[in-house]
Protein: Methyltransferase domain-containing protein
Amino acid sequence: MYDFSRCKLCATNAASPTYKLKKTTVYACAACGFHFIDHLDTMPSGTSGDASPALDQKAWDYIEGKLPANGNQLRQNLLLVKRHLSLSGTHCLDIGAGAGLFAHLLAEAGASVHGIEPQGVFREFAQRKFGIELNGETIDARHWQEGFAGYFDLVTLWDVLEHVNFPAETLRNAYNVTKPGGWLFLDTPRRDALFYRIGEWSYRASGGTNPLFLESLYSPLPFRHKQMFTLRQLLQLVETIGFSVVRVHSSPFRPQNKIVLVCRKP
Ligand SMILES: [Zn+2]
Structure:
């Protein structure tokens, strides 16, 4: 059982319950300012014994219905990647591959692609829709850390860091499987955004009864949002791990605000 007074970012015992939402509580760290909720996912055990629900017609229609919107974003992400490297012949790893669309786009661009997706229902979709075999073992598994150490030219984490149990560990593991000179691309919601600050202000002003947007930004359900970074926290983390930051895209004012980072392993 994890002690949530221990900060998931700086590992000091300086975190305390700060925003009590309907279904979860946001802890804030007094030492580094990190925000995270009091919930961790129980990870399914790799490709076998996965207790995920089956991919029935309803699940298929749901996932397929979301593809166009997700596809637009992922095509933008692909353009960003292509601005920095030529994909043909590269080894790529998409962590948190979901329905497999980005892995599919990478393969179309001539890359040799691996993908990680812990939810069996998405892996099955990716297999049937795109013919892509995603792996259910998460990036901390020996399969990746020993079998693919320093291997990938490109590692992507699209909308992953806010979902995983321990984002610093995920980034460290991503670093380990990246080749020297290889690239890491990621995006994640930005906490030091105007709408989040308004939510914090409203929570305090209402004595905790009206957290506004904070309520919808976090969830204790499996694979939902567990933490959000400020731009400064995330930059500091990737640099501490060893990446060089090549490019940052972010604006604190748009509601659908994200941090997009382009990083390189020296
Ligand atoms: Zn901290």
User: Anything to note?
Assistant: The beta strands are 15-20, 25-29, 35-37, 91-95, 112-116, 152-158, 178-189, 227-228, 244-249, 258-264. The radius of gyration is 18 Å. Helices lie at 57-84, 101-108, 120-130, 142-145, 167-177, 194-205, 214-217, 231-241. DSSP finds eight helices and ten strands in the chain.
